[in-house]
Amino acid sequence: MNDDIRLAIDWLMAHPVALIGVVAAVFVVVTVVPLLALSLVFHVAGRTIAGGLRGGPWLRGVTIVALAALLLGGLHLWTTRTSTPLLIYSEGPAPQFVEGAVYDLTLEPDGSLLVTEEFTVTLARDLRSPFRPLRRDQPATVLALSDDDRPISAQAWIGPQSGIRLGTGVTGGRHRYRLTYRLPATTKPAMKQPERICPPFSACTYLTDQREPLPVQRVSWRPLPWPVAGEMVVRWHFPHPYQLETLAALNARFTWAEPGSRQVDDRTVEVRRVSAVPVTPPPWLATLAIPEGMTEAGTLRPDAGASWMVAVLPLLALAGAAAVRLRMGGAPAGLATLKAEYQPPDGLPATALGRLVRARRPALVAAVLAAAASQGVMRVDALHRPRTGLPDQHDDEFTVTGSIETLPAAEALFLRRLLHGRSAVRLSQLEGRLYEATEQLETDVQRALVAGGYFNRRREVQRMAGVALAFALGIGGPYVTFYLVNRFPTFLPVRHGSPAERLGFTEPVLAAWVLAALIVLFAALAVPTITRKGAMTRSRARGFAEYLRTAELSRIEHAAAEGHAPPLLPYALALDVSRELTERWQALAGAPDNRRGRRRTLGLGEAAFGDDGILRQPLLMTAGTVQGGEPG
Amino acid sequence: MTAPIVVGASVALSLVLLLWFALTYNRLVRLRHRVRDAWADVDVVLKQRYDLIPNLVTTVKGYAAHEAAVLDAVSRARAAALGATTPLERTQAEGALERSLRSLFAVSEAYPTLQASAGFQQLMTALAETESTLQSARRYYNGTVRDYNTARETLPTNIIAGVAGFHAESMFEAAVPERSAPRVAF
Questions:
Q1: What's A97-274's CATH class?
Q2: What are phi and psi of A217, to 5 degrees?
């Protein structure tokens, strides 16, 4: 079978087209199909959940956050049984911990190390295979292994995770292992840095100051890397006399030695250490000023009060509620679906609707001119003439024929700024004033919308408050948690005596604080400019644009082509219902859409402003003439 | 060498065709939903107008009780319009209702006191507003039908439309009397 597969692979490598086809098929099967299946599941589940929810957006938001919290809690419970949970600091690679260990190491004359380990390990659950890791460059030969005095099979292997497997299908609970193995070539004949300090938890010894018969200067070996919550005893048996005078000398060689270590005989040294995994904060939190002693494991007591879920869920719920509340202060996205509207929403003028749907400035200017034309206070002569496309042929004229005060306030003000107290003004002579008037038009319309409650006037305050709250949650929360955990033992339940597990009980709370901070931060940053009322009106404006596009466009275009300006024309321009119509009007009275000029503008703005928004040259084309009207 | 090329090209073409089919089908579904939504709007406005007619008949009856034939014609036309379901039936029923309402308005002009009554004027204003909304809704509905029918009748979308059973939708035409030019007799 393997030969067949190899032949098939060779054939595919020789036929690139077929190889591409196979790769594409595998890609579809491996990625697209599961993704489609997942999306279907989420779609159905989402519709089911959303359809079953009652109450307003607030209640729905809280419900969704609560469901997410339950999901996170479940994931956490699950992940603690399989691997190190996300965001959680742990010294050990697995939930098991060593209660005590006795290592008996015999350094052979050939430089190999014969190790006998006796350790008691508590497994939090059934494991497929406990694992005693070793250094990658130290292949081991297992000589014997027993579990509670029953011989079991063992396997040592080399790879990214080299080590010794302590049986398979091991049930949870306490196990007392006795493991004997041999490590070849643990010694090095030369040391470049004999005075080097050994790193913590690594047992290295320097023999240069001894009169040993072997040219051994260093022995490499490491104890179990799992969390050890008990006494570790290491007995070294040397093939030569090895005398230690003081504990200080011992510590110079075994950096983790503690009082109780001793010289057994002239060839044997016993090193002891009582180890406890402290409840230490994560590295990111350790940079804060946690008071000394607050993180000691001994301050925790087992078998305290309620479940950690009781502490986590309210935090998540509060964070979600804050997020939803902030969100509700702005605009709920997607609450209103697109539905055709037959009238301008709220009777708003075209420029206001254009601003709501984020129309560009030229569109707003075109809408003002079209509004003036449709109300009969301005005549647009350019629409009667065929356009040649040449700059010097743009002799379009805008003639004010009535009182512009009949227009909405912002639009009338815009035209008054253009006239600037004169009876007749050519747009080509306005230069920067046209740009300023256009900018002012946008500002005025925006201000009117803010006054009308369509835009959020407290957005910045809400954002700053949200960011401050997020920082308070993310930094102050963990600090308070550690304070409470170490000062009030009943804050969290600790049913097992393992320090690692005690630390684990604090981790969900820390994760909750971080999660809450992130939720609030993102919610604060996402506080929208537009209000709920504005969002609804925007949605209706889009519905009105849909109506114009579907039902009125042909009539508007027909009238515009004949030089008329029907009443719906300003709305069609502001809402960008027809690209052709919009471009024609914007070409008549184009204006820079922003000061930096990053987007390509039409007509006047393109000619007048450079990329940096600075006026570089006078307007090149004669865009039109405004005559008469009300002086500003 | 050619067989893998043929197989690969066939698979790629099949995927492209499948994607095109899905996109076209979804577009037709969206267009059909637009038509149905637009018709629902028309239906709502028509019902608003039907709700106004009994009040109008009652008001006119209070001033011109002996115009029973005209009032009965309006009531019958309203009942027929209420029973219509499809746009085609609605078009025909609306024609009859329009004719009967015109008769009613013509009759009401002969009663100055009726014309001057506040209730009658309010009803006429409400009817005029409803009529204006109805015109917009009708235009929008016809626009959606136009887009939908255009899509389902043009190549290559009509292949999908035929296979998937997308049937043509009918316009909601204006009442027949509105189309005919008014005849003026001297």
A1: mainly beta
A2: -115, -25
